[in-house]
Amino acid sequence: MIHFVRTYLDVIWQCLLYVLLLFSGWASPPDIVVIYAIETIVIGIFHAFRMLILTYGSTPDNRKNGLGMTLFFLVHYNMFTFIQTGFFFVFLAMSDERISSGFDFQNFITVLKIEGVQLALLVMLLSQAIRLYFNFIRKADYRNMEVRTYMFVPYLRILVQQFVAIIPGLFILFLDGGFAAAILLILLRSLLDGFLARMRGDVAFINKSADYLVKRSNAQGKTLDRSQVQKFLELVVKY
User: Fold this and answer.
1) In whole angstroms, what is the distance from residue 230 CA to residue 208 CA?
2) How far, in Å, CA of 44 to CA of 152, rounded?
3) Integer Cα distance of 150 and 235 in angstroms
4) Domain positions in the chain
5) 183 close to 163: Cβ distance less than 8 angstroms
6) Positions of E strands within the chain
7) What contacts 24+ positions apart, CB below 8 Å, involve 194-199?
8) Distance CA 97, CA 120 (A)
9) What is the pTM of this model?
């Protein structure tokens, strides 16, 4: 029971919070879509912090290249998230007069004034800060990482979670799916986060996943380093 709580506590309390925001009226179904879009930005900001810690707290090679890699990540990742979030706002503007239909920075200010979004953002920041300290700074195992490899860690998670979010998100924004679609979105995202949380402590599953990816790559005529694949998967689920 204790192991279960340690593994899934972060997932459970975020899931319950978002459901509570919905049923209390603090957040509407479209607001939930916005919350998950903002989460993408928050993840990127904290990842940049980790890259800077990795840059100045590990190997000479990281100190040489880390700052440039961090700046590149911030530009590249934020271009990705800005375009993605911009499309969310374009769709949201169809049903919410507070949102403009263009790629307008004012939209961010508008949604951050929503009480439910503010509370969710506070929870995100707290959750990411706890992970940053306990999973990264305190363990200090980042000293053996390469910053050029670590830079790509959040992309896989973001791509998967946005794929998970898009179908219920479309129901909410276009088909007036309402509470049912919002609950589905929360559950799907929570299942994804729970799956990643389970993988953190399941070495056998990570090994099987690495074997599958290497085997699939070989079948396509490409060659992957088995140890590097496993290391990358461990980083993805850990941070």
Assistant:
1) 9
2) 11
3) 7
4) 28-193, 203-238
5) no
6) none
7) 194/8, 194/11, 196/157, 196/236, 196/237, 197/7, 197/8, 197/10, 197/11, 197/237, 198/7, 199/233, 199/237
8) 22
9) 0.82
Compute the residue count for the chain: 239
What DSSP letter does each residue of 88-134 carry, written as one string? HHHHHTTT-TTS-SS--THHHHHHTTSHHHHHHHHHHHHHHHHHIII
Q: Which two tokens stand for residue 108?
A: 């961010």
Instruction: From first to last of the 239 residues of the chain, give the pLDDT tens digit.
Output: 555 655 677 788 888 888 898 888 888 887 887 888 888 889 999 999 999 998 988 888 888 889 999 999 999 888 878 777 777 777 677 767 777 766 677 888 888 888 888 989 998 899 889 888 888 888 777 777 888 888 888 887 677 666 666 666 666 656 655 677 778 888 888 888 888 777 776 778 788 888 888 888 887 777 778 887 777 777 776 66
How far apart CA 16 and CA 32 sit, in angstroms, is: 13
Structure tokens at 232: 């990358």
**8 Å CB contact between 85 and 91:** no
CB 189 within 8 A of CB 82: no
Residue position matching structure tokens 């990127």: 44
The 8-class DSSP code of residue 142 comes to: G
User: Is residue 161 classed as helix, strand or coil in its secondary structure?
Assistant: helix
Residue of 108, 144, 148, 133 whose CA lies nearest to 239: 133
Helix (H, G, I), strand (E, B) or coil at 193: helix
Planar angle of CA 136, 137, 142, nearest 5 degrees: 60
